[in-house]
Amino acid sequence: MRSYVERAKDFIAEVFPYLEKMTPWDVEEQIEVFNSQYHRAVKVNHGIARIALITSDYVVKFDYDPDEVADVGGGHAEITMYANAEREGMAHLFAQITAYKYNDREFYIMPLVRGVGSGRWYAEHYMNPQERDFCRKYKLSDLHSNNYGFVKGHVCLIDYACCLPESTSEYDDYLEMQSSPHTWMDSWS
Ligand SMILES: Nc1ncnc2c1ncn2[C@@H]1O[C@H](COP(=O)(O)OP(=O)(O)OP(=O)(O)O)[C@@H](O)[C@H]1O
Ligand SMILES: [Mg+2]
Question: How confident is the model at residue 58 (pLDDT cuts 50, 70, 90)?
Fold first, then answer.
């Protein structure tokens, strides 16, 4: 059987004519047309920074505007992060990402990860101390429920583009808030 990356590349070639304008507001409509012509059931998920085209076993993402991703981090940031993770033996924490340039546009292919949105806490909650340290070291932020799922019972990040060198980890803020309930409850009164 061909790999999910090979099949995703074929999909990109097929879907590209439907995405020609690549404007967020007509992608959904275009994918509906694609689905009916190709008898597919691809879903569209609009994130803040990019669009994800979701199939039953892989996901293809592209930035709305590759030049406007500085704050939230684009697909390119994920390629770098994945390389860091591989180098430090942490690749299991991340959905593998493959960049694929087609007609001068950059697409990013990932395996479909299940259980996205099912976790109750920040992703760090499900990590061991070494894994958490890795996230701190690379200033990974924004690891809320919709940005990770589970693979073989272990947390797996699917959106790791956002690292904010200036700020502390949201998870640390959260822990701090939990350990001093009076402080934040007081702020409501
Ligand atoms: N590998 C994946 N497996 C399963 N679902 C995915 C995958 N990648 C993306 N998705 C779905 O698509 C959504 C948008 O993707 P992603 O989080 O990467 O975009 P984003 O623009 O960075 O989102 P946001 O900034 O809103 O967090 C995710 O919240 C998730 O529901
Ligand atoms: Mg996201």
Answer: very high
